[in-house]
UniProtKB/TrEMBL annotation:
Domain of life of the organism encoding this protein: Eukaryota
Source organism phylogeny: Eukaryota, Metazoa, Ecdysozoa, Nematoda, Chromadorea
Official protein name in the record: Carboxylesterase type B domain-containing protein
Organism: Panagrolaimus sp. PS1159
Length: 347
């Protein structure tokens, strides 16, 4: 079902419906500016349920050109932003899903909230689910997560939901040994999206003591890695991992560096000096990099190396000398690990 379409069907003589009504606006306040969102309705004509939805909320400055392969920068403040449609998609490793509208200016998140006159706000605010989409680090978008399912399963039960985009494939996990290319920029994207939510929590009436971090497949790995950072761990009460964990063999591929160098060579870049790689890659349009990825034959892989671009352990993000030490030092929280069939179909 198209998320922006209105669908009606009969069940038990009550007309069920879902609708995203751009004509009925809702206003969400944040410390950076006001969000002009929309009213999303589920339920029946006799018993409709309305949710506040803000789509395509920019949480970071664009990552185009010189900002490619760098940690994201806070978005400037604004007076009012229209947040009625999903933001642009981040470039994937390859466009197997046939999506459009790829852009490096893709660091957006979506907010789904109850109306407090429909579901009274608890004393300390609404509990929050911060959910990271899947796609094995190389594909996907927050738009993959169905609005109707989010509203029915969470918002209608008094839970606020935040779903972020993050950079994918080489744009999110490129590796060189040069200072001008940051490691794990996708993790830094998610860290900034999370901090945007924390910064906005008082305005959005969110309960900072009841924040659950969750994800599916690669998103579950990123959720767990994100939770190991002190600044994040201090603000979450639980973790839900669906079909993935940072401890799974495929979570961190040993072949990312070699694949990164191969991509540079395929693009005609001199790889003798690592600093030149980062500089020259930033000079190319993203479309040129993506076209080269599309034209490159997939390598035959097995074992830990079957996913193209993955996160890697680095001390700047995690502080400690090893992943084992990082886990050992982490504050204890509730963790739920879920395995499913056909997890790629989870919406």
């Amino acid at each position: 079902m198209n998320s922006f379409a209105t669908s009606h069907f009969n069940r038990n003589k009550a007309e069920c419906m879902t609708s995203l009504d751009e004509n009925h606006e809702t206003l969400l306040e944040t410390p950076l500016g006001n969000l002009e969102g929309i009213n999303y309705t589920v339920g029946t004509l006799l018993e409709p349920f309305h949710a506040q939805v803000a789509l395509g909320v920019a949480y970071a400055y664009n990552t185009i050109g010189e900002f490619r392969f760098r940690r994201p920068i806070n978005v400037p403040s604004f007076s009012m932003a229209a947040t009625k449609r999903f933001g642009r998609h981040c470039f994937p490793y390859k466009n197997y899903a046939g999506l459009k509208d790829f852009n490096e200016d893709c660091l957006f998140l979506n907010i789904f909230m109850p109306f407090d006159d429909i579901i009274p706000m608890p004393k300390n605010g609404y509990p929050v689910l911060f959910f990271i989409h899947g796609g094995m680090f190389n594909y996907g978008t927050s738009e993959d997560l169905d609005i109707t399912a989010i509203v029915k399963n969470y918002v209608q039960r008094g839970i606020a939901v935040v779903t972020p985009n993050y950079r994918l494939g080489p744009f999110g996990f490129y590796q060189t040994r040069a200072r001008n290319v940051a490691y794990n920029v996708a993790l830094w994207d998610l860290e900034l999206a999370f901090q945007y939510m924390i910064l906005s929590s008082e305005y959005l009436q969110l309960d900072r003591t009841k924040i659950t971090l969750a994800g599916v497949d690669g998103g579950a790995v990123l959720a767990e890695l994100l939770s190991l950072r002190h600044e994040i761990r201090a603000n979450i009460s639980g973790l839900i991992l669906i079909g993935g964990s940072a401890l799974t063999p495929w979570a961190m591929s040993p072949g990312v560096y070699d694949l990164s160098i191969k991509l540079a060579k395929d693009l005609g870049i001199n790889t003798a000096d690592p600093m030149d790689i980062g500089h020259d890659l930033k000079m190319l349009p993203a479309s040129a990099i993506f076209e080269k990825l599309e034209a490159t034959k997939d390598l035959s892989k097995d074992g830990r190396d079957f996913i193209e671009y993955t996160p890697d352990f680095d001390r700047e993000f995690f502080y400690y000398s090893s992943l084992k030490k990082t886990f050992y030092e982490a504050r204890e929280i509730d963790i739920y690990i879920i395995t499913t069939r056909n997890e790629g179909s989870i919406r």
